[in-house]
Queue: 4 jobs
Job 1
Amino acid sequence: MPFLSLSILDELFDKGKETALFGRWIRLKDIAPILLNHQKKIEVQEIGFSEQQRSIYRIKIGTGKKKILIWSQMHGNESTGTKAVFDLLNTLGLNSEPCIEKILTECTLYIIPMLNPDGSEVYTRVNANKVDLNRDAVDRTAVESKLLRSVLDSIQPDFCFNLHDQRTIFGVEGSKHPATISFLAPSEEVSRALTLGRKQTMNVIVAMNKVLQQVIPNAVGRYTDEFYPTATGDTFQKLGYNTILIEAGHFPNDYEREVTRKYNFFALVQGIYHIASNDVFEAYEEYFNIPNNIQNFYDVIHRYPTSQKKDVAFQYEEKIINNQLVFDLQKVADNDLKSYLSHNEIVCDC
């Protein structure tokens, strides 16, 4: 397996980072001027509209025969992948590193940077009609779901990257680390059989994980592969389109997901480079060495080790107040929390 060095990835990120995007609340108005600028050099096409008639765009870059489809923000409040996508676009457009040339000559990338602009506008998971697009792959009741499927059918990609964010509650089994990045090779049916497509998907994930373990060791998790018949990844995998799920999670003291953004970028570039550099995707066994993604974190825990008081756990609730994204700390549990970890722990000697 060919791997990119950390020094190259660091350099690519530093040169390509899209400085116009920052934080968690990314809306159509934030990416529209960036798309306009990219339109001068690469193909940017308005391919349809959301339920509330906001534009949905598709970007095309590269000339290779291997087709890759990437989409982000099908959940409007999950924007880390969107930032990483624009970092990737800058990198592909501005950098002449051999690895970038390899990607552009071997692959053609099709990117939908924001599938759910209505949800993004109000920072919600669902679309304007309260539909979770990631559970609408079969019925396709939402116009956004229909649009994504039409792009899939017309492109018929070799690989897909489905970009999401996960909550701060997730950690990596067997460690005390939050799950900064998690992966999934979706199942195609209830038995979770290791089909050829799943093995190929796992092979790409193995390559991404090996790079990430060098910079965030023990902070990469693996999602359960329980089959969800209406989920996008499971459906696309079942249809024969290898689909890699990337979940961007928490890095210590990084609630804006700016550090995680960098590692999301690392994973994307390594994954795409791996596809560009290989014609056979067979080795997959190491996928199962990635520890499980588990729910074992709270944002804050108050500990009372010297008294009879119960530990108290808090989570941040993300809200839009006065047109600002606010992290509102809410009490969620008071019990024996010895088996739980926290991103911020307060020990109360009382």
Job 2
Amino acid sequence: MPKLEVVAETVGPWRRLRASAEAATREEPQLASQMNSVILSHDGMAGALSYQVARKLGDDELGAMSVREICLSAYAADPAIVEAAEADLQAVAERDPAIRSLLQPFLYFKGFQALQGWRIAHWLWEQGRETLAFHFQSRISELFQLDIHPGARMGKGLFLDHGTGIVIGETAVVDDEVSMLHGVTLGGTGAERGDRHPKIGRGVLLGAGAKVLGNIVIGDYAKVASGSVVLKAVPSGCTVAGVPARLVNCPTNAEPARTMDHTLADVVYDFVI
């Protein structure tokens, strides 16, 4: 099967996305209409992104045209939303060896698409339009099997690999350059009120099925192993694993979220964090 054209990483995400769509049109003429309507007919990332979010999240109650108008209003009011989306695309390109071009996350990957829908929901939440924000949250959950509260705060350059089963609570904070795999929960313990969800530092790697519960801090560039249950703060640059989670390495890989390095130390430190 012919490969799609490879576009230099130095070219911006929008130009790379367009080039990939043009190559896909040549390779698979049956997809030409889709490539044109979603990507090639637009002048920039904002137009294409709004179209893609709208065609996914539009339904009988809130049609695609209305969703697109909301998206364009959000992008006009806060251009940083589109900048964050471009950083998210770049993160997928850097960290996911499965992709062939930016087309795959932009058109097909649940994690990326759910994240872009959430960015609109969060903008609505910040505008005090909570009911509409919850509508977006509900649609995202129904379509992509991710449940991210619109009140959560999340940075840019995020990689939600696979995405299925990710749950992020209302007062959670996720800093820039974080990677998380399917089944991650950033939740409360069920007893608190108010600020009750985790604070995830920059460049953290959260393995598949990791559960981080309560208003605790996971320090910058820390790593949480798959299947772990974390109930206490994790120091920056450290690795934790197990149920309950224990420190297994300090310091760990310098940038675990970028390298997607899930390895653990050979020596386990015998204390619970």
Job 3
Amino acid sequence: MSQNPFLIAPQDLAPTLGRAGLSVVDASWYLPAQKRMAAAEFEAAHIPGAVFFDHDKIVEPGSNLPHTLPSADIFAAAVGELGIRETDTIVVYDGMGLFSAPRVWWMFRTFGAGDVRVLDGGFPAWKAAGLPVEQGVARTRPAPFQAKCDPSAVASLAAMRETVARADTQIADARPADRFEGRAAEPRAGVRAGHMPGAHNLPFLSLAEDGRLKDAGALRAVFAEAGIDPDQPVVTSCGSGVTAAVINLALASLGNRQVQLYDGSWTEWGSAPDTPVETGPATVR
């Protein structure tokens, strides 16, 4: 069994399926360039008893950003319809191994769920282990979810402006190096290329191996190479707030409880007309 309290291995999850108080959540989501349809893949095959979490629908209505964290009431209503309670053991997985599941892990924790795990290796590891799958839409029974948002988990645009101006908190950007450095155009129209002044580049893929989160020693080495002290406060960012949560998961796994996620991420910062933007490799100030 994994010693990481935020992960669960497929072979440990399998014998618990169907037990009261367990909710399994398929949190798959893909970029347009990946040409995969998460909902369709869920209906074709998923872990028995799992429900599907739609990243594009469980958001704040009316926001002009792609994945804005909803209010506590909206989140509670959406996941309650899926039959999930905040007192459940909630296991989240995705179809890439370690890509979009940490975002939903972070959301459940932000709204007060006490026992949330990420399936180690995701659905690819589940299938590779020869474990059962089922087809079709999820069979759900609505349940009450008592949501209470932890505001300390989330950084706003105003807070990020202050963080950048003060240069007193580490910023970890999970995007690939070519986007961070401004060598590649952003996938969303109207978003400038580059990064926030003072940010460190920590591509989320560097934290995983074969779709699994690296062990503590390897994680610390990755943070050190990126110039980040994993024991000090960190605010994470990415393109739209999804893969930043991989960094949050890694830092939580190392015992850091001083971590925020910038929910608007680069889509918000890079599209604002007056935010400072740098290009090129990270520079430590």
Job 4
Amino acid sequence: MKKYNYLVLMALLSLTVFSQGNTYTQGFGKFEGLAMTPPMGWNSWNTFETNIDEKLVKETADIMVSSGMAAAGYNYIVLDDGWMAKERDVNGNLVPDPVKFPSGMKSLIDYVHAKGLKFGLYNCAGVQTCAGYPGTRGYEYQDARFYASLKIDYLKYDWCNTAGINAPEAYATMSNALKTAGRPIAFSLCEWGDNKPWEWGKPIGNLWRISGDIYPCFDCEYHHEEGNWSSWGFMKIIEMRKDIRKFSGPDHWNDFDMLEVGNGMSNTEDKSHFTLWSMMASPLIAGNDFRKMSNETLAILTNKELISINQDKLGIQGFKLSAEDGLEVWVKPLSDENWAITFLNRTDQTKTINYDWKKNLIKDVDFGFEADFNKTTFKIKDLWKNKEAGTTKKNFVANIASHDVIVLKLIK
């Protein structure tokens, strides 16, 4: 980031008041430490868009607990666009839609909290949200006090209807407003990567989107003719940004968007999607209908071995080590000097892997980690099969189906 922009941002994140010769300084910026591992939970948008209500939320919370998802680490229930009425009240306050939420938003949040879960809401930096509901522009501090009074735990902050608005300033203002309101609320910047939030977002938010909206396909672009914009298959999103992994880490994550697991792709593609989000240390925010969730979908979303890769305390995003003839190798350094290795078949045909560890050394130029298999032998565990798979003394040999993955943990 240019030095000038950085200085402006730092000025926005701190406020100094001079009075009668005394100096009082109050620090602003995000609440630190709310996302030391990538956040996990559920968001309503991918499946329901604005068709949300309190019955859906309660049923989702109930299933999150009863299905074992909460025990696996999913703890946020986030209501996306469409939860509020079309107009603010006479005092300028946001109004939860009384038809969708007849018991009131506070009662619903209390219900979710009583389940041992956390609750999040959505708004937008512009004058209106993406679906045409009241945005936050000009109401940042008022809305932050409202969220604090509801005792929410997470705010997703979008970027529609923002003509003429400076992104770093807009997000810094809302971050400061949340801090002033006093309740620790994880702040999710949903700016789509247009203004490179990874360069300025760390003191402002706990996570930031790096792309436009996801679409449930392996490697497609879905064009929305009515708005002249596109949604992206998960492989498109994985490849969309280059050289940003060094900006991601504990409490400041690159967010690759909500999961489409269970939303129409094959189980194989769902497995690959979940694997890559785990490898990239992306937040794991489910976007499916829990009430219709298959056992196969639940098994993917709650795979404890893959979740442990995502939630690894080192907090480093993985990267693509190699690609040849449609077969890719992705790697992620883990704590305790271990590694996660993913083989991905991007082709439409089954491939055979014959991987000579000694000819494929790993060097992570961004974070300084490396693995030399000529010097160190690792034990191998296949994480989807949950079984041991030899050591790196011998070549790893396996068949891998179209669009499938094989994920190995190398244990020192």
